[in-house]
Amino acid sequence: MVSRPALLFAALGISGLLLPLVQFKANRIAAGDGINLAAAFAGGAAVTALLGVALLAACHARWPAWLRLAMAVLGMAAITLSLGFAARELSAEAGKLARVAPASGFWLVLTAFALMLADAITRLRLSMPARWLLLGAAILLVAALLGSSILDQVSVKREFAVRREPFLHEARTHLLLAFGSLGLALLAGLPLGVAIFQRPEWRGPVLAVLNILQTIPSLALFGILIPLLGWVAATLPGATRLGVSGIGIFPAMTALFLYSLLPIVSNTVAGLAAVPGPVREAGTGLGMTRGQMLFQVQVPLAMPALLAGMRIVLVQNIGLAVIAGLIGGGGFGTFVFQGLNQTAMDLVLLGALPTIALALLAGIVMDLLVDLSREKGRMP
Amino acid sequence: MIELRGLTRIYDGVPAVDDVSLAVGTGEIATLVGTSGSGKTTLLRMVNRLVVPSAGTVLIDGVDTATIPVHQLRRRIGYAIQGDGLFPHRSVAQNIATVPRLLGWPKAKVDARIDELLDLFQMEPARFRDRMPHQLSGGQAQRVGVARALAARPDLLLMDEPFGALDSVIRAKAQADLRDIQQRLGATIILVTHDIEEAVRLGDRLAVMDRGRILQYDRPARILTAPATPFVRELVGTGERVYRLLSLTAVADIVTEGEAQGSPIGPQTTLRDALAECLWSGRDALPVEGGGIVTLAALRAHASQAPE
Amino acid sequence: MPRFPSLLAAAASLLMLSTPVLAQDIVVSSKIDTEGGLLGNMILLALRDAGLPVQDKLQLGGTPIMRDAITAGQIDIYPEYTANGAFFFNEGDSDVWKDAAKGYARVAELDKAQNDIVWLDPAPANNTWAIALRQDVATENGLSTMSQLGEWIAGGGKVKLAASTEFVTSPAALPAFQQTYGFTLKPDQLVQLSGGDTAATIAAAAQQTSGVNAAMVYGTDGAIAEAGLLVMEDDKAVQPVYEPAPIVRAKILADHPEIKEILAPIFATLNLQTLQSLNGRIQVGGEPAAAVAQDYLTEAGFLH
After folding, report:
1. Reported pTM
2. Which residue of B has its CA nearest to A298?
3. Which of A21, A275, C118, C237 has the lowest CB atom count within 10 Å?
């Protein structure tokens, strides 16, 4: 009796254990040697063996879900701590320029246990409050790991250490880009969605235009916006004072806003359309005004679809905002492109990892909110 | 109390409702019967202006409804529909409280009214007040829908196939309950149905509609015994009509002195059920609870009172 | 720098007349690469130290973005390279770019006339395609110029060059060197890497991977010093000369003429080795550009 998913996790994890845990580089742009977990620090071999055994043992189908959860958490913690210890030990003997970067082995083992975690959580079928609690605990644990000194010698953290202020600044900018564009899209898209829901003859043209917008490749759209907005800023009096600009955060925000419209508008329409006919008939017949119907009945019932649209936009924009780094718009993309330019992968990771983590977090939180709204709405 | 004058509604050049005039007295139940497409629902929805008439007026207590702001009008008229249309995201109490809250009733008054209505519909307030619509059975949901329609004490109640979604077992009970409640509250009801049986059972007066016109508007007995057009005659059905006619009268009306054998029937039993019991138990006479008998002969006499 | 991201290029023609922007601050910008960060920060710190109101828009993007931005008046000053004038003004065939002084004069003349942009004094460093040799090999054989290198190779010197395919095949690159300096590299003396990544070629020479002891580089690459390589001087001027110089909108310079005097002495000190070592601290050492710029200016006495 073998659990098939666990077999997959074991395969991934064990390959990871056999591959290098870290890359030990002479400096941040040099190639470096791969070093396995077993050789990385005193006790590394023991940790390798333990993790390998855990991965294999989890293949037994009878393990209860909570045990898998615990094992996954421990595994992820163990490999992360191992990364930290390896970095510390290897850096201790090397010069100031040397770097220890996470390598394929680390990522594979981490992924294997992360998948095990996701699998366990699904099996547990937790209640809504429990899921929120679990998310909170996860965030605290990750924050604790990152905040502690254990990972200080890992290359990515060293990149962070010399640019703490700029990192925080770009983090704020990135959040502004992602949430700001979502906010603007809601401001414009919700009324637009309601309008074309109430006038079906407009639906076709409006959605067609938004669809076309959506298919423009992001770099091309940025490319069009820069001279366009630059011209607007130059010719329209007072435009610059309002912040209109061809470079920087303005074109980035504009592009993100445009990409967010379709999901918001089309999900608004879909959500409103899903309100059952008898409900709308009853509401109107009982004497609700259009506004009352909209805000008291239709929007609450359309909320799951709306939140699903917001989820799409948020996760999309967190990733897309990286491109703002190409035009001076700020955000984590700044580090990605600086890193690419310097051929320093650690700097690229400093931009990429927070972006991924943020997108994951946003996805999870929004999913929870969608489920919450579904419970409250209880549509037949 | 409510008068429809020359109501017409035209869609794409075709009249869905064609010059309809009728009046319903206060405290009466008027049923609109017809096949689908006869315009009965459109007509109903012109009363609360969910459909705007192409011509004609609706007068409630002498006031032309076109002069009243439409939301105010609807809040004064109860509206219950097939599939009940309960708001899925609101509890039973919140659903019932819809119109009172729109009218700005104080909270205490609203709460009291909710409990009063739940009691009236035989749903224990403590158990049902906080339930969500998806936790109710079909019959319970339908009752909550009607309660919601009655919450603000409207003088007029419009019902569009309110029992359509119920299975036949509970439908009869629901219909009986409605009669009961209407009598207690004294509400005026206009009810649309495609079921002639239901129309006969509930209506003080029936309006038979076909293709947007009213063919006959009369008491059920008259509709059954003297159909105005062949369509009406077909609708009431030659096979069923005698039983429907019998169902309009209670045994108490034709009870006579005498003795009879076997288990008795209640005085409010319809003649139709009495006839059925006679045939089933093979008796010529049935004892009536509280005294007296009803004879098969009397039943037959009553049935054949219908001239053709 | 001769690299040109193609994606955001042509739409520049859509562009705007530069209606000057009413901003108090001087908007200091730079390209997104390592040297751009270094030079841009130097300009920013120097101007700020002199009491001028400045706004930081450093590390903005690639060359096309910079040109769009400055001609639109969205930024006021940034470091550009003299030989890029060939692309800006479509004079790629002209030989004037191979001469430092003539190239500078030409681009300054054209930019002032057409865009009202003033080129300030450049740094004496040529950030162009070059061949760098391992220091030990160079010292052993007394090689410091391309002519000497060419002679040595033609005389049988053992060389193995790591370069990109573009460098090897482009007529303006290796073939031009070979023709001018009289040597030919045989296929087994070449290691071709697919991308234009000089960090990889430098690393190959540093670690003597596959026997590589020479690398294709850009003159001021930060990894050169650390890797122990020596750039062979292009004494017969085969490659265009890319000297970095601050370029500023004429109006801003008119408002603040002291900018010229502030920056000229700083740029004058930035020779090839200095830039290599500063870039090295950023790229190899991982220090942020602002800190390196600050350090250098303070030590050299330019900041008060």
Report:
1. 0.82
2. B87
3. C237
